[in-house]
Design a protein that fits this description.
The strands form 2 sheets. The chain has a 7-stranded mixed beta sheet. It has a 5-stranded mixed beta sheet with strand order 8-9-10-11-12, covered by helices on one side. The two termini are 22 Å apart. It has 6 helices and 12 strands. The chain is an alpha/beta fold.
């Protein structure tokens, strides 16, 4: 594994805490992980559940999010009942092929190859393997990690924070050359988004759930944890995409999902 520089967690004169870049290399390729299909009752609409793998020219492998907990691949109906998720939606398709091990395997990778985990936020469809990568640092917003427990879905089936080396994000930061992290609360208190510069595709903006789908902008992010912040940061992200000429991959876009390349394919 790559050696990560020390994280500097201090504050001087009211400035944002400083963080040395965690990555040495520049991104060379990005893969979309297919973590299954879910139907949201509102609409209704069918959404893909996604995560990402980014590799750098220094041999570093970064994984963003890990989908639903594995119990949903074992018995989605029982897991939905246990978590009281049925009021929101239902799993349409989620097998063991949609879990991190299989998705990494499609890319010729295994858990041991992952150098850094990133948690975009802690809703149930993003943190299934939060505890599944011991010994690997987890980059997460401080606002999210400061919660008594991950957001998950309901208090009925609460998940505790695993004992890990958390690298805490308090504002926009550069993770490494050509890899930016944006602190964009609104959908969740510690929502993160990412911009990755690829050699052939160019800039790619991963909005995660800061903008789940393009139509959410017109809907004024109704139902978000904080609608005002979601509107503000949604507009900021779209301005970044426009200014940088970035390809935008939304968090859960029904229109975009079928067209995205997914593992084992890469965006180069």
């Amino acid at each position: 594994h790559s050696e990560f520089p020390v994280y500097l967690d201090h504050q001087e004169g009211g400035k944002r805490p400083a963080m040395q870049p965690l990555l040495q290399g520049r991104p060379t390729r990005l893969a979309v992980m297919d973590y299954g299909l879910f139907e949201v009752h509102a609409g209704p609409r069918t959404i893909g559940i996604c995560g990402f793998v980014i590799q750098t020219d220094a041999g570093e492998t970064v994984m963003i999010d890990s989908g639903f907990p594995a119990k949903y691949a074992d018995d989605a109906e029982a897991a939905t009942a246990e978590d009281d998720l049925g009021s929101f939606g239902r799993v349409l398709s989620l097998t063991h092929e949609n879990l991190p091990d299989a998705q990494l395997g499609k890319l010729g990778l295994a858990r041991a190859d992952v150098d850094l985990m990133i948690q975009s936020h802690t809703h149930i469809d993003h943190l299934g393997e939060l505890a599944g990568f011991p010994g690997i640092p987890i980059l997460i917003a401080k606002a999210e990690r400061d919660l008594p427990r991950p957001l998950y879905w309901s208090g009925k089936q609460a998940m505790d924070w695993p004992d890990r080396d958390y690298r805490l994000v308090t504002g926009d930061m550069t993770l490494g050359p050509g890899f930016e992290v944006f602190f964009v609360p609104g959908h969740a208190p510690g929502q993160l988004a990412f911009l990755v510069e690829l050699p052939e595709t160019g800039p790619v903006l991963l909005t995660s759930d800061a903008i789940s789908r393009a139509s959410e902008i017109d809907e004024a992010f109704a139902g978000s944890w904080h609608e005002g912040l979601a509107i503000e940061h949604g507009a900021r992200l779209m301005k970044i995409a426009e200014d940088r000429g970035a390809t935008v991959i939304f968090g859960h876009s029904p229109e975009q999902w079928p067209e995205l390349r997914k593992a084992p394919e890469w965006y180069l």
